[in-house]
Amino acid sequence: MRTAFPTTSRSGLVIWFTGLSGAGKTTLARALATVLQEAGYPVEQLDGDIVREHLSKGLGFSREDRDTNIRRIGFVANLLAKHGVIVLVSAISPYRATRTEVLAAAPRKLEVFVEAPLEVLIQRDVKGLYAKALRGEIAQFTGISDPYEPPLNPDLHLRTDQMTLRACLDQLLVALERLDITVRRR
Amino acid sequence: MRTAFPTTSRSGLVIWFTGLSGAGKTTLARALATVLQEAGYPVEQLDGDIVREHLSKGLGFSREDRDTNIRRIGFVANLLAKHGVIVLVSAISPYRATRTEVLAAAPRKLEVFVEAPLEVLIQRDVKGLYAKALRGEIAQFTGISDPYEPPLNPDLHLRTDQMTLRACLDQLLVALERLDITVRRR
């Protein structure tokens, strides 16, 4: 029954959502994953926090440890993409060089910069992390006490303080269409 | 172009080669991977030593560190298998409970115990590791100064001191046929 294991004639794709905590990376990735799955594409979501549990327990938030974590996520994402999967990574991934290095190894990639101004993120503060970081209770918090290097030339730049989720999703789908990944718009 | 990303209607498989260093795990995995690839199956080989570099740098050889390494390999193997890939893992993976735990999460699995008597392995000693371990130059060397718990009920038990590579490969292909994975015998 060879048909049970179709060889993917085409390689997959890594969609990498980078940006500060609370900017909307995981929300966007989840929404896009649902749309792609419903259209029949093989999809895997790799959330930075969850993957950290599985692959990087014990690593901290120094530059070296963050980079190691990102390289591990990249290693797994690229393996999956090589086998035809559309992989959606949401991870702060603050260092430009590391993102570039990891995405250079992807069969195809889409780097998505998810942004809202820090004031907005501090106001949103869904998880209460910014308040803690501002009180000094969390060390090395990206955007407050640790650097974030925005992409210089992302494939997509989504301002989640200016656009609705739906509008962001539409932009993502347009970008994917250019890669011959099409879904019926709802 | 939806056809570019076929949804795998069937989940993949994790083939887990366990056994002492030098028993023939990687050799067998490599030979089987070639045959399956030629037959058109999507295949990924995860070699314990290589994966350690990517996912587990800094981990040592305590029981806890070995288990963490095996769980990480298992995490990646199961992700790939979920997307239809036949994943061939070769890793000493000395602890029975950890192998069982990891393989329980695989969509389908084949546990292959690759064995040759210690005397034979010490005689082979392709990498010179046993000589070093016996001289006490490598601590925690599985089979010499660290435990190995053989599977109690492996799906396949291959004695590489008694069978040729070809004969081992044939037994693997027979086991795979029972899982509807068939290749034309050469």
Helix-strand layout with pairing:
2 copies of one chain form a homodimer.
Chain A: E1 13-18, H1 25-38, E2 43-47, H2 48-55, H3 63-82, E3 86-90, H4 96-104, E4 109-115, H5 118-124, H6 129-134, E5 156-159, H7 165-177
Helix pairs in contact in A: 1-7, 2-3, 3-4
Q: How much is the radius of gyration of chain A in Å?
A: 17 Å
Q: What is the spatial order of strands in the main beta sheet of chain A?
A: 2-3-1-4-5
Number of strand segments of chain A: 5
Mean pLDDT of chain A: 92
Order of helices and strands of chain A: EHEHHEHEHHEH
Q: Tell me the distance between the termini of chain A.
A: 36 Å
Shape of chain A: globular
Largest interface: A-B, 33 and 33 residues
Low-pLDDT segments, ≥5 res of chain A: 1-9
**Fraction in beta strands of chain A:** 5-15%
Give a short summary of the structure.
The structure is a homodimer of 186-residue chains. Helices cover 41% and strands 15% of the residues of chain A.
Structure in words:
Two copies of one chain form a homodimer. Chain A has 186 residues and is α/β, with parallel strands linked by helices. Helices cover 41% and strands 15% of the residues of chain A. Chain A is built from seven helices and five strands; from the N terminus they run βαβααβαβααβα. Chain A has helices spanning 25-38, 48-55, 63-82, 96-104, 118-124, 129-134, 165-177; strands at residues 13-18, 43-47, 86-90, 109-115, 156-159. Chain A has a five-stranded parallel β-sheet, with helices on both faces. In chain A, α2 packs across α3 (63-82). The longest helix of chain A is centred in the middle third of the chain and has 20 residues, at 63-82. Chain A starts with 12 loop residues before the first strand and ends in a 9-residue tail after the last helix. The model of chain A is unreliable at 1-9 (pLDDT under 50). At the A-B interface, α3 of A face α3 of B.
